Amino acid sequence: MANLTIAQERQKIKQKRAFLVKRDAFRAGQKVYIFAGRDRYETANAWRESYLLAAEEVKYGR
């Protein structure tokens, strides 16, 4: 994941948690959804807070 995130995003993850969307990460037009936290509990919380947003993006192609 370190190669997909910038220092500011990694700092946010270390502080608590983050939901990130990376466009064109490996291929043009591709989106990568990252749910991350400082530990497994914060990672789970990041997912709980944001999975519906990611699902909506995938469903409606936003």
> How many runs of DSSP E, i.e. beta strands?
2
Helix content: 40-55%
Distance between the termini: 23 Å
Shape: flat
Helices and strands, in order, run as HEEH
The biggest beta sheet is recorded as: 2 strands, antiparallel
The radius of gyration over CA amounts to: 12 Å
Chain-averaged pLDDT: 91
Number of helices, where a helix is a run of at least 4 consecutive DSSP H or I residues: 2
Q: Helix- and strand-based class? A: alpha+beta
Query: Which spans have pLDDT < 50 for at least 5 consecutive residues?
Result: none
Strand fraction? 15-25%
How many discrete domains?
A: 1
Give, in spatial order, the strands making up the sheet with the most strands: 1-2
Written overview of the protein:
With 62 residues, the protein is α+β, with helices and mostly antiparallel strands. The protein has one domain. 48% of the residues lie in helices and 23% in strands. It has two helices and two strands. The chain has helices at residues 7-15, 40-60; strands at 17-23, 31-37. A two-stranded antiparallel ribbon has the order 1-2. A hairpin with a 7-residue loop joins strand 1 (17-23) and strand 2 (31-37). The longest helix has 21 residues, at 40-60. The chain is flat and about 30 Å long. The two termini are 23 Å apart. The mean pLDDT is 91.
